[in-house]
Design a protein that fits this description.
mainly alpha
């Protein structure tokens, strides 16, 4: 009965765009350019590409195949393959429930900036005071968070075909068009080609273990691995769609947007800040919400238009990821509790809104709470717990589970149902031997970084 009632994508392109929409998120836009600038431009791009084609491909196809084989979200999927490992599904299931509330908070920031370029103008938006004043506000920051959540919930409420698939069919192509347009405009700025050269030319002297770990971590988090999303989306995919082709296209979208983000941001910031080293020192929210608005404000008459289009692009990226996270939470509740989709979504909405309010209060009402030390917030703690701890552990356990418990053949047979699996030998070696080691490296490096024991 479960398989008859299961939602599904209407086409392979719908699945690819939805999964790519999940993979393409804020990390592509505010962290990838910074890492590329920091670690030698072209050499970082090359290492990232190699890791994406091996490590990233292997983990993604594993998760999607598990979802399609079992037709269940992560809690039920692992249990269906081996009852002893039902706990692994629970571990993976907690991740999207931790991430979604704080991701929607950041989505609210992006929504505010998108609107601000229309309502206030580029000059008002520029500067760190605008950002600090906004996120610490007791009313406005909650309003924009809830507005972003509402947009996300409306799409998910319309279902897999009528909501998620249709939304991504519009937003993903639009995102690509906007990224290409901004990158092209940026490269016309005086001095921008020097920034593009800094971004694209490989600096072999920058090759280091830190570069590899940075590329490894960025690729792992960017592809939405180990958080139940790809298992959930895989459970909606028909048996005829080629898994290898789909995964390759998803990875291509993710890499393409990351590359375009670097081509947009590095040359523009290079022009404004004067050197690649200055660009390499900025990452995350400070790059997105402080540095770039300052860069846009110096573009003269085009400042408002460029700023608006850029943040609209970022908004689409944030929405596609938030939609996939919310859908994953809904599917987990639906499968785990046996509720209807409507009841499951209502429960998920209530949880996300409540947790979002609590986490957002870490910037105002609960700003005195510093869970990871001075200067940290509740959002920082949730991000650390989910991204740096739980996701690597879930990925490590999945590799052990597939490589040594149910055996690779179980997943490989599912992949072969829809076409040849030419990379099977590489995939098997990766899942059994190499990927577990790389995931442990990610876990150790990012936990050590949080406590100041390792610098990236």
């Amino acid at each position: 009965m479960e398989q008859k009632k299961r939602s599904s994508f209407s086409s392979r392109i719908g699945f690819v765009l939805a999964a790519a929409g999940s993979a393409v998120g804020l990390g592509n836009l505010w962290r990838f350019p910074y890492l590329a600038a920091r670690y030698g431009g072209g050499i970082f791009l090359l290492v990232y590409l190699i890791l994406a084609l091996t490590f990233g491909f292997s983990l993604m196809i594993t998760e999607i195949a598990i979802g399609r084989k079992t037709r269940l979200s992560c809690i039920g999927a692992y249990k269906a393959l081996d009852k002893r490992f039902g706990f692994l599904g629970w571990l993976a299931a907690f991740v999207p429930f931790i991430i979604t509330p704080y991701y929607c908070i950041i989505g609210g920031w992006v929504t505010k900036y998108t609107a601000a370029y229309v309502l206030n103008g580029a000059e008002v938006v520029a500067g760190g005071d605008f950002f600090t004043g906004f996120i610490s506000s007791n009313v406005e920051s909650y309003f924009w968070m809830l507005l972003f959540m509402a947009a996300t919930f409306i799409v998910v409420a319309k279902g897999v075909k009528g909501g998620i698939e249709k939304a991504n069919l519009v937003m993903m192509p639009a995102l690509i068009v906007m990224a290409v347009a901004i990158a092209a405009y940026t490269l016309t700025m005086p001095g921008a080609l020097d920034g593009a050269l800094y971004y694209l030319a490989p600096d072999w002297s920058k090759f280091s273990p830190e570069l590899v770990i940075g590329a490894l971590g960025q690729m792992f988090y960017s592809l939405s691995l180990a958080m139940g999303i790809m298992i959930t989306y895989g459970s909606y995919l028909d048996k005829k769609s080629s898994l290898t082709q789909s995964v390759t296209r998803i990875g291509g979208f993710d890499l393409g947007v990351s590359f375009l983000a670097g081509l947009m941001i590095v040359p523009a910031a290079f022009v404004a800040m004067g050197s690649g080293e200055a660009v390499a020192e900025k990452s995350g929210p400070s790059l997105m919400f402080v540095i770039l608005p300052d860069v846009f404000s110096g573009m003269g008459q085009a400042a408002g238009v460029v700023g608006f289009v850029f943040f609209l692009l970022v908004l689409f990226a944030a929405l596609t990821s938030a939609i996939s996270l919310t859908e994953t939470c809904t599917s987990i509740v639906q499968d785990g509790a046996g509720w209807s989709r409507k009841k499951s979504l209502c429960a998920v909405i209530a949880f996300i809104v409540a947790m979002g309010i609590i986490v957002n209060s870490g910037y105002n009402l609960l700003s005195f709470v510093e869970p990871l030390g001075a200067g940290t917030t509740l959002l920082d703690f949730c991000d650390f717990l989910s991204n740096s701890v739980m996701m690597p552990i879930a990925a490590l356990m999945t590799c052990i589970f597939v490589g040594w418990i149910i055996k690779p053949k179980t997943v490989a047979d599912e992949v072969r149902l829809s076409g040849p699996f030419r990379a099977e030998k590489m995939w098997t070696v990766m899942v059994k031997y190499i990927a577990p080691v790389l995931v442990v490296v990610i876990l150790v490096a990012y936990v050590a970084q949080q406590f100041g024991l390792f610098v990236m």
